[in-house]
Amino acid sequence: MSENTLAPSQLDQRDASWYVDKLVQILMFVGGISAIIFIIGIFVFITKEGLGFLFEGFSFTEFFGSINWRPTSANPTYGALALIVGTASVTGVAMLVAIPFSLGAAVYISEFATGRTKETLKVLVELLAAIPSVVWGFIGMSIMNEFIIEVFGVPIGLNVLNAGIILGLMAAPIMTTIAEDALKAVPDRYREAAEAMGATRWQIIRQVIMPAAKNGLVSAVLLGVGRGFGETMAVLMASGHAINIPTSPFDSVRALTATIAAELGETAQGSEHYGALFALGILLFIITFIINLAADLVVRGIRKK
Amino acid sequence: MVASETRTKVLEVDNLSISYGAKTAMSGLNLDVYENEIFGIIGPANSGKTSFLRAINRMDAFDTNMKVSGSLRFMGTEVSAWRNAYALRRQIGVVFPLPVGLPMSIYDNVAFAAKLRGVKGKAAIDEVVERCLTRAALWDEVKDRLDSLGSQLSGGQQQRLTIARALSQEPSLLMLDEFSIAVDPVTTMRIEDVLKELKKEMTILLVTNLVQQAERLADRTALFLSGSLIEIGETGALFEGETQDQRTKDYLEGRFG
Amino acid sequence: MTARFAATELNLSNYRTERRYRLMLFSMTAMLVLPVLIILGILVLKGAPMISWEFLFEFPRRGMTEGGIYPALLGTIFIVVVDLIFAMPIGVAAAIYLSEYAPDNWLTRTINLAIINLAGVPSIVHALFGVGAFVIFFGFGTSILAAALTVAIMTLPLVIVATRESLQAVPQAFREACWSMGASRWQTIFAVVLPNAISGILTGLILEVSRTAGETAPIMFTGAAFFLPFLPESVFEQTMALSLHLYVVSTQVPEVPEALPYGVALVLIGIVLIMNAISIVFRSYLRGKKKW
């Protein structure tokens, strides 16, 4: 029975599929905004649990200025400075390791490698990214620990250097992948024009492609830094446990993330110590939020061109 | 020649304007399309021809940039007033410039719209599939491989498959937008023959960049230029030079566009 | 006149420079990926002796220094399953929304920013959230449910991104063809878009499983415990987990035989690498089966 023997008003009926379509649209929308709901939820709940501390035992100057993180002493102090510097130093070493190697690898894979080699390298990078952080931590405690003690002759192998190298290896794959994408996004006509002028591959890369991919490369670095700041288990297991400001890469340190992980189990819910750990969590949330926002803005800079 | 006042109007357009953001694609369009005619629309690129087709079947619902104003009536009702836009689109078949074979079997390609209409049961759907593929001049070539992927047919076959899909909707209006640009001349001729047959049962809106194609097929032809309607007339008359606007004459004689 | 092209001095020096840089870059790449192989090698060497049927299917004894890892293995599977139940529907729905419905406006940009941030928030902060929200506020207590929800939210971006990419890879022409036949958005998605995006959804699922199995911090305080004498009987109970087990046997158990933590690490990394390998093979298989 063909529909067009009916008058238009009879055809124009909202049938079941019309209503199903609307329902699905609503469900998909809910799924879509779920990410926003969760991010807001994270901020709300960690603030809620940290509120007790923030209104009572928290002092801005102590928190950010003192290295005395002694929550379990008779007169508890909550100076997070050493922890902040600990995180920063480990992340710093990680970036020293990761940035040159991942950018170099990205350039090689994107501009020089072909066929099987390229595929294999990309697979290896992907597998590197898949290694769980607790396994990295274990490697830091065992293999890297012994390696550092032997090679550098220091008594303790759990330190800034250890955690830094491990973190560097952890952050490198993401940075490589994003940097690779940024390099791939540079239009071929840039390469072709430079080639036509007689430039060598390396000259093209250094003077044409990398500047053009600048935004994506910066974004890759920022995301790597974010990863470094936020890493928990590996740093917990590889950086040692001394809460102090490091004076050499062979000093042990404690990171913000590691502190929370190490101490949360010992606190009573609602206690000041408990709240202080949540306060560290709020700090971490804000720092990584800013880094991710910056990375996103930088990437958006490309799309505006 | 039938007196136009007694024929049913399938499309009535009154002061239709279409814009995409700040760009105007069409302004102040007025025209009527009668039942069972082949109405040709010719004109150079960016004249608003495709935008006009998209406004007819409410594709602006899928494009947040596209703004349509004015009056466009299909079968007597404003297209914007249809409560179920999907039902509106089921009445209108569309053939695009680039052939599209959906990535499913040929059988499923043609069965898709039939199922949307509510056709049930294998026998009924089989019948629709065979009938539409036959009328689209494709049945003989694919009848032994209805299970193969529609997206892997040749361009000419995919275009005929598109027509078969459109026919399976049993539409009152069939719109073709430059259907022959990606298709070989033999297939074009076969499709033109199909269209001549189809006009007995439906109305056809034929947008084409091939002026001769309009001459061969269209009963009446309209010229669009840069978003405005320049002229409509009986095709025969226009091509014999009885134009009211000099630009029409120039375009038909190939002096621009 | 015959023209003879001889390399000029400049050409040769450029060529040499290029060779040097190429070599340098290759070695940098190699130094980046070799650690994977070296680490795997060492883990296999030192951990393989531990791997046996008993190791995988027995309970630990004598304070974790003997016996097997069975409850931890099972616990990880429980957490993964519950996690998938939440993460897959929400993640796929979000991806469908972003790919098929979302207009190019501030809300969409905010959603994308939220996704990047969800992935970027430190895992221990996710744990804090899990404690505050699921353990305390919703009252699930430390349980498989709380742990799985926490990990699900943390790994949601993986599913969303993988699914969205495969949805966006479906050509727009197919959608327009369906719409112009009068199919609704949902009918089009169901009939043409989703079936052709299955590869991305499965990739997302495999990555999700792999990531979830390896995570420690988010489950540490929300539902995973170090030693439980019995297996959990409902999602409201605690469980052991492979990742937490590795952490504890390597840091907090005295006199553990050297090979034990290597064995646990080997099992954990084995699961992760096998899942990733399946995903890689699957993707290249699909690349050969293109439908258009």
Features:
heterotrimer; A: mainly alpha; MetI-like fold; 1% strand; B: 257 residues; alpha/beta; Rossmann fold; 2 domains; 6-stranded mixed β-sheet; 4-stranded antiparallel β-sheet; 26% strand
What is the rounded Rg of chain B?
A: 18 Å
How would you state the average pLDDT of chain B, rounded? 91
Examine the secondary-structure arrangement and name the CATH architecture of the largest domain in chain C: Orthogonal Bundle
Average pLDDT taken over every residue of chain C:
89
Name of the CATH class of the largest domain in chain B:
Alpha Beta
What is the molecular shape of chain B?
globular
Number of extended strands of chain B: 10
The second-level CATH architecture of the largest domain in chain B is 3-Layer(aba) Sandwich
Instruction: Say which CATH homologous superfamily of the largest domain in chain C is assigned.
Output: MetI-like
| End-to-end separation of chain B | 32 Å
- In the CATH scheme, the class of the largest domain in chain C would be Mainly Alpha
Order of helices and strands of chain C: HHEEHHHHHHHHHH
Task: Explain what this protein looks like in three dimensions.
The complex is a heterotrimer of chains A (305), B (257) and C (292). Chain A has 305 residues and is mainly alpha-helical. Chain A contains 13 helices and 2 strands; from the N terminus they run H-H-H-E-E-H-H-H-H-H-H-H-H-H-H. Chain A folds into 2 domains: 3-55, no CATH class; 69-303, MetI-like (MetI-like fold, Orthogonal Bundle), CATH 1.10.3720.10. A two-stranded antiparallel sheet of chain A has the order 1-2. Chain B is built from 10 helices and 10 strands. A two-stranded antiparallel ribbon of chain C has the order 1-2. Chain C contains 12 helices and 2 strands; from the N terminus they run ααββαααααααααα. With 292 residues, chain C is mainly alpha-helical. The longest helix of chain C is centred in the first third of the chain and has 39 residues, at 9-47. The chains are: A mainly alpha (305), B alpha/beta (257), C mainly alpha (292). Chains in contact: A-B, A-C, B-C. Chains A and C meet through helix 2, helix 4, helix 5, helix 6 and helix 7 of A and helix 1, helix 3, helix 4, helix 5 and helix 6 of C.
Secondary structure layout:
The complex is a heterotrimer of chains A (305), B (257) and C (292).
Chain A: H1 8-11, H2 16-55, H3 60-65, E1 69-70, E2 77-78, H4 81-112, H5 115-130, H6 133-152, H7 160-184, H8 188-196, H9 201-212, H10 214-230, H11 233-238, H12 256-263, H13 272-303
Antiparallel strand pairs in A: 1-2
Chain B: E1 9-20, E2 23-34, E3 38-42, H1 49-56, E4 66-74, E5 77-78, H2 85-90, E6 92-95, H3 106-117, H4 122-135, H5 139-142, H6 155-168, E7 173-177, H7 185-198, E8 203-207, H8 211-217, E9 220-225, E10 228-234, H9 235-239, H10 246-252
Parallel strand pairs in B: 3-8, 3-9, 6-7, 7-8
Antiparallel strand pairs in B: 1-2, 1-4, 4-5, 9-10
Chain C: H1 9-47, H2 53-57, E1 60-61, E2 66-67, H3 70-101, H4 106-120, H5 123-137, H6 144-168, H7 172-180, H8 185-193, H9 198-214, H10 217-220, H11 242-251, H12 259-287
Antiparallel strand pairs in C: 1-2
Helix pairs in contact in C: 1-12, 3-6, 3-9, 3-11, 4-6, 5-6, 6-9, 7-8, 9-12, 11-12
